């Protein structure tokens, strides 16, 4: 696939830079999960992280970029998987439970992959930084919510997980509702039918000058400079990073996004990952959750970050037990920082004290 070094482990194909040095045993491994593509050609597969790979050795780290199920090289969903997912579309009593079942199965696959990676590559303890970009955040949240229940007396993956990162998720991937009257090119009545989907990728990869309130978000018009990331990608780059089938009307990414929000699954995953149940302790208490947001991304990204911070503040007032966490604002970056500013982003994801890098 596209001349890169692809490997296969379990159900996933993945790009792997390998250990930074055969003699070094204390390195950090960034495992990153891609987002959702669009039929108009928005890049989404692990190939979109290609610019991170050459920097791994320089920073003394390892990068593993996974292609999710139904993406090139990874296992397609089974007929049973598809039937379960499609059953979440109709508004039935079973739809919410089936959405939860589908996402828990994805968490189990990621748990098994990381377990096999640790054992086959002899990864050091406290060395994995698991990151989900955009819609990929939902799959990483599911992992975080369910992984403690997969541990056994003889095996605990938590000792290998350094942190879990939500990298510039849209608000809906975290389970937060969209505001009333929200804007996208897909619901813009001034755009002719069928044209909105063509504009959407440029809208998502643009740079925006936002204020600090909902009223001062720049909803529609990107800055002229920097230009949208997609306009600066070569045809070859786009061809390698775009994979459209999961984004069809009943494709898995489309259904996961809609059902995850409509059935409340993403909200439940977020709450389990972040907060302790009543009269209980936080599972995997030493694993940090980091929320990284890019302040020149399209408006649904800063909107989600604000809702996250407000939720944490309210939880403190309510006396909830909250997971160790941090919020990092990547100033001047858009939704494709891994392409436009790969070294700065990689340093931020790997750093235990990332505030200066985000500034």
TrEMBL record:
Domain (AB hydrolase-1) ranges: 30-346
Cross-referenced SUPFAM superfamilies: alpha/beta-Hydrolases
Gene3D superfamilies in the record: alpha/beta hydrolase
TM annotation in the entry: none
Protein name per UniProt: Alpha/beta-hydrolase
């Amino acid at each position: 696939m596209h001349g890169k070094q692809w490997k296969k482990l379990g159900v996933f194909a993945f790009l792997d830079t390998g250990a930074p040095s055969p003699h070094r045993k204390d390195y950090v491994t960034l495992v990153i999960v891609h987002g959702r593509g669009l039929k108009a050609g928005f890049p989404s597969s692990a190939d979109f992280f290609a610019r991170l790979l050459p920097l791994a050795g320089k920073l003394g780290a390892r990068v593993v970029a996974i292609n999710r199920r139904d993406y090139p090289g990874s296992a397609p969903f089974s007929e049973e998987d598809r039937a379960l997912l499609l059953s979440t579309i109709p508004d039935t009593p079973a739809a919410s439970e089936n959405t939860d079942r589908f996402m828990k199965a994805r968490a189990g696959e990621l748990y098994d992959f990381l377990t096999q990676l640790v054992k086959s590559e002899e990864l050091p303890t406290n060395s994995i930084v698991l990151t989900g970009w955009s819609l990929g955040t939902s799959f990483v949240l599911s992992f975080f919510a369910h992984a403690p229940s997969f541990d056994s007396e003889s095996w605990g993956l938590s000792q290998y997980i350094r942190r879990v990162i939500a990298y510039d998720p849209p608000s809906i991937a975290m389970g937060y509702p969209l505001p009333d009257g929200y804007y996208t090119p897909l619901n813009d009545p001034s755009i002719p039918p069928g044209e909105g989907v063509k504009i959407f990728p440029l809208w998502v990869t643009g740079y925006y000058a936002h204020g600090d309130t909902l009223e001062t978000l720049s909803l529609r018009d990107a800055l002229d400079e920097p230009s949208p990331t997609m306009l600066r990608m070569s045809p070859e780059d786009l061809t390698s990073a775009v994979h459209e089938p999961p984004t069809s009307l009943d494709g898995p990414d489309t259904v996961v996004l809609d059902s995850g929000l409509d059935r409340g699954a993403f909200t439940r995953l977020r709450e389990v990952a972040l907060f302790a149940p009543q009269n209980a302790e936080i599972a995997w208490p030493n694993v940090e959750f980091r929320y990284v947001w890019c302040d020149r991304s399209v408006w649904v990204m800063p909107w989600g970050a604000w809702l996250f911070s407000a939720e944490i503040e309210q939880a403190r007032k309510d006396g909830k037990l909250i997971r160790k966490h941090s919020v990092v604002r990547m100033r001047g970056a858009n939704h494709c920082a891994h392409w436009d500013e790969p070294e700065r982003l990689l340093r931020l994801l790997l750093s235990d004290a990332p505030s200066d890098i985000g500034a």
